[in-house]
Batch of 2 targets.
Target 1
Amino acid sequence: MINKKWAALAAAAALALSLAGCGGSARPASKQAQSGPVKETMKPFDVRQVVASDNTKGRTIMWEMPSANEESLEYREQGGSTIYTVATSQKNLKGNKGIKDGTIYTAVLENLEKGKAYEYRTREGNEVSTWYPLKTDDGKSFKAIVTSDSQSSDYSDWKKLFANATKANEDAAFFIALGDLVDNGDDEYQWQTWMEDVEPAISQIPVAPALGNHEAYSLDWKNHMPDRFLTHFSLPGNGDEKMQNHYYSFDWGNVHFAVLDTSLTEEGEWLPDLFEKQKAWLEKDLKGTKQKWKVVLMHKDPLQYGFADENRPHREEGFSEEGKAFMPIFDANGVDLVISAHLHTYRDRGRIYDFQRSDRGPVYVIDGLSGNVRYPGLWKRHALDEYVAPQPETDNYSVLEASDDRLVLTGYLPDGTKLHETVVQK
């Protein structure tokens, strides 16, 4: 299916040489588009919205084509007559696993108006795509879909789960992908499958992805820089060009989200200072926000679990290296909620402060899994677990609802059956 998609598009244009992205260069301001007749015959694929740092006025739009041409993005107020255009940056996408080379286009929208409905389309010459909807953050209460570990054997379960989640939550403002989006981060076929499975939602609402350890594996399952993740998502800046797209933060409503890269084990050969730089950034980032709520999104879980499987090596429960590195920063900077993944189990651990049960500190929830790579009965119950999903576990998704007075994270089975509700108040 995906190969056919690429082949049809590739037949329309020859592949070009790699073009460098815009990097840190100044982005051109939007300007009114040229008038004149157009043909709605352009067929971009993997059209996606990505969160901006401030979503009341910004958004990143990305799409893919088989060739490198001078393409642009056009947008307007929903149903409006005045159309504006934004130039794009380009990156070469190296294919493998039956996927041909191509080009990823990125357009950054800025200076939009808070809480307003827009629509956008791609353009090449006088050919344009269909219009896609876009709505900026209105600063009020919102709902977000949370997924984790969508890595799969064939992604069919993931596709069904995500379709069910979006159908049941048509008012979701964006969705979160908590790492291990794909099983092998260097397999382009899996990336194309994942992108296809989240259509059309990802063209209509933005994604906030976190980098997982499986994004940092090569085709022969060795540690590897997560190059394809870094190419597929253009994320808000963190002030460090070397660490761009690894970790970032963004605001939505009255919530500040900090999204971490926890794959030091996998990336350490190339980024030995990943955690040290990230800790310094995180401290500054959390101190600098004026949002009421602070939420951290991270792939690897802060807690360490013992194995229930007797064939596995003994491991004491406690806290992971990721937890030891970042939990003191969460404590010191008033983080309200930490949502993690990685262990393929859904558990609510309540409030933890200074590495122990407390009536203060962040609430910690591990979100389970949204794909079909399951580990039934693998983990013991941790002393800090307050809720454990019924065993053996199936896949699940969650919904985060944020208002002035509380955060509510609710886990659901694929058919919409409620698992558990976590409420955070202050």
Note: The chain has two domains: 2-20+40-135, 142-425.
Target 2
Amino acid sequence: MKKMIGVGLIGMGVVGSGVVKTIIEKSDALNSHVGLPLNLTGVAVRDISKQRSFDISSEILVNDPEKIVNDDSVNIVVELIGGENPALELILAAVRNGKHVVTANKEVISKHGAEIFSLARQNNVRVLFEASVGGGIPIISPLMRDLVSNDISSIKAIINGTTNYILTRMAHEAADYSVVLSDAQKLGYAETDPTNDVEGIDAAYKLSILSTLAFRASIKDTDIYTEGITKLTDKDFQYAKELGYSIKLLAIATQTNSDVLGRVHPALIPQDQMLAKVDDVLNAVEIETDLTQKVLFHGPGAGSMPTSSAVIADIVNIARSIAGDTDLLDPVRLSEDVKVAPISTLSTKYYFRIEVIDEPGVLGRIATVFGDCGISISSFIQKELEEKASDAELVIMTHEATESSVDRAVVGLSELGVVNRIGNVIRVVE
């Protein structure tokens, strides 16, 4: 019978520091929850001599993460270095060595989840990753446990705090994208290179994880249609408000029969919907099922302590199984019957913002293009452009149309001599 449970950490950055601090400062409470002491056996860091903001014994610090993975006294390896490599190899090595793994690594789970889950099953260990999506919001565990009797039909989520902060500022202050991005970087919400956030890549990683669990299929980040927020302007927010909508970067996955369509892109949402009210750096995930209907998970999506909370929860979950010598839940089993649908199959409403020459007959010519593509116009707004009185801006809302027909319409509009440019095309989610 075990006398303690060894925990080894790889990486002590923002999140790792929060985890170590919590284990040290709340050891009595955690040990009580587990039934055995949690022993912080080793922590792999880049610089052992670096000064820490909390007390930690230098004796457990190492600069080689493989020492953690190969340490016989470590029962649970916690990977918090992020990125694809060497994190993936360290996780796989830990699993091969019969060690349980806790990770916050969305990229690794998104790209290699199926491989990791299969290997974990072979070695009778668990790999938990609650912190990979939504920071402190419990969403992974509910999908793996609490909602297993439900047939999930859709996921709608705001799962990138950086972009949500930017869009909130642009909506409420009519602020310019570049100005707000700069502010987000100064506040630490956005990286020096914000590409993963503002181009939707980070959200696609997270959506692929949620989709994999919800639909029990291997959905990779490359299966997710991805579009960022860089084309949005203050005009889009102005017109959206006039029309009764908010603009959010949404991560959406839907299942129809055996097909799953995953997409990340800016979307117009009716202002009375709950997701439209999620502002600043907060995240939210809405799950729709046959038994519970709609369930909303809402809270801080990043930060040291919220993310640390999710990591600690996974550690305690595994540690309880070890302490009780109970059978471990089988790692995620994935079906090969579920197929990925392309974005071209999407059918939804659309918002068009088009700059045109202001002369008689323009709207008719534009309507003809839409009609030829099988798209019905539900409403339009015409605005005179302040910078050029001879031109106008049309905001067109469509009835439900297919993505492929919208693509054809964009080509057709671009070829019209009266169209100066297509300012934006945004999908509507109702």
Note: The longest strand covers residues 245-256.
